[in-house]
Amino acid sequence: MTAQYCIAIDAMGGDFGPRVTIPAALDALKRHPFLKILLVGQQQQLQLILKRHNQLDHPRLELLHSESVVAMDERPALALRRRKDSSMYLALQSVADGRCQACVSAGNTGALMVMGRGILQMLPGIDRPAITSAVPTLHGHSYMLDLGANVDCSAEHLLQFAIMGSVMLKAVEQIALPRVGLLNIGAEEIKGNEQVKLASRLLSEQSDLNYIGFVEGDAVFAGKADLVVCDGFVGNIALKSSEGLARLISRKVRTSFTRNLYRRLLALLALPVIKELQQQLDPGRRNGASLLGLQGIVVKSHGSANRDCFSHAIDQAVSEVEMNVPERISEQLERYLQRSSASE
Amino acid sequence: MTAQYCIAIDAMGGDFGPRVTIPAALDALKRHPFLKILLVGQQQQLQLILKRHNQLDHPRLELLHSESVVAMDERPALALRRRKDSSMYLALQSVADGRCQACVSAGNTGALMVMGRGILQMLPGIDRPAITSAVPTLHGHSYMLDLGANVDCSAEHLLQFAIMGSVMLKAVEQIALPRVGLLNIGAEEIKGNEQVKLASRLLSEQSDLNYIGFVEGDAVFAGKADLVVCDGFVGNIALKSSEGLARLISRKVRTSFTRNLYRRLLALLALPVIKELQQQLDPGRRNGASLLGLQGIVVKSHGSANRDCFSHAIDQAVSEVEMNVPERISEQLERYLQRSSASE
């Protein structure tokens, strides 16, 4: 069986580097028979870890040596100029060259965006890449976009997010008409800042979008919309605040259940339920944020992802490759741009 | 014993009106021997409920009749012009007249702000009132400011919030040097939008402020700062998103613990622990948000507050009266304004 597509993995990225990225890649290869992986990183390190897993000669695994690594706190613009020999740069380059169809990295988010933009270029009509990720809801999950890639978004940017996110959800989640909500401080028309008011008008003019109007912060986890569109500053803070509260709850549960012997016994009994809940609920656990708007697929994993989480990020890239997301976004954008130039 | 201060209560405000506000007021009178309360509302309704509680002749309770009520969805600016006979308007007016030292309302937030500004006037140097409220942390609580009163805040507004909040925490929470953090999408200097970058420079120039730099969304519930300063749009969405996640967790816990008989039994055993946790954690339960920057004390209760919650909002007003918060804010602002005009 021949491999039908190849995904480049920045094997050095993230808090744990190849110790996590390599086993996760091997897991993904098992799950996806048409997948080929290009591991980009310091060759000796990669070989050492592959040897430990007895997978030095995996038929669907290739290595690409890189000299350096982009540090987690490195300035994105500097990284683009100075780190042309880094695992992140070379992984993205392999997508630009057509050698790979997607890139997955757990490295520096800002650098990944700036390098992605510099190496892969933006789709026509899109100014800056945006980040989207799934958050848990009562009966599944919904997506937020943007999650911190763009601050000070104009109404036009919010519209671009809505179009891109909507197309991605149609493709990856197979939702025929994803409900798009605009994050605001109230559901009434008069609420909010100038950007969201103007964006709301722009969104409601799009016949291809299933725009449901403003949604408030608490609607995100209630699943009122399939896609919640927001400025990256707001989205990032909303998601991280919620993660913070989830962590606080988890700590308080632990304290509460260890206060005395009776409660410790109770906790033992309840442990499976608690574990199940933690898995379902931690918004940080659903891994694999997509960078949308680039001429290529780039998936960002949490820096602290473990083997399972990083493997989930690879799955996300696989779905986007199979569904040809950037091309579909591009087609939709073209239609929108034609309409808006025709109406001018 | 003579009553030393009087608090006006908008008895008609909130989802439940006098059925909640009156018993809550009676509870507060029991707790605070120097407190006198002016109940503002439809006289017959108030008398009926007071009679039910056998408190028609409470020596520290007065009634003030009002004809109308500000609706929860009424436009604030219209309410200010048209509702001069409303319970909210007359309660605020009693503070402006000096008859009362504070006002508590569970009514329409926007109307309370606009009326508060119109009737009580702003402190010199402050443009718009800001809302602050406590959120739970691991070992107590911290405050967020602003929570939705102001959208599109300038750096100067964020500085005003920091000064006002800091003074309030010194007074009400008895913290000598409250740690002030600025909400941002990263802790590094280069992150964020223009407003927060500029605000950070302004804050670090204030020798009276204990400014600790940028904090991220997850730091809010971790208690890294005593006061988290942010634009009202961002603060409102961060708080409501977190509330949404807390509700989702609570629902998932219920589903998880009712899946089979064994789990239902387990839930019965764990019930006291779960209830205790819910009380500690729901960010919506800590009631009593303060409107800062006005020439008078105004406390906003959740619209859906029950007797205990509304009573807690009255306590918040009592603390602010006892600590003379607006005057202390005003003094601090004066010092700041003198310094900044001297340095010009």
From TrEMBL, chains A, B:
In terms of domain of life, where is this protein from? Bacteria
**Catalytic reaction list:** a fatty acyl-[ACP] + phosphate = an acyl phosphate + holo-[ACP]
The biological process GO terms on file are:
fatty acid biosynthetic process; phospholipid biosynthetic process
GO CC field: cytoplasm
Report the subcellular localization. Cytoplasm
Q: Note the InterPro entries from the entry.
A: FA_synthesis, Phospholipid_synth_PlsX-like
Grouped into one coarse class, the protein's main location is cytoplasm
Task: Identify the enzyme class.
Answer: transferase
Q: Name one GO molecular function term.
A: phosphate:acyl-[acyl carrier protein] acyltransferase activity
Any idea which UniProt keywords this protein has? Acyltransferase, Cytoplasm, Lipid biosynthesis, Lipid metabolism, Phospholipid biosynthesis, Phospholipid metabolism, Transferase
Task: Read off the HAMAP family from this record.
Answer: PlsX
Q: What is this protein called?
A: Phosphate acyltransferase
Q: Which gene encodes it?
A: plsX
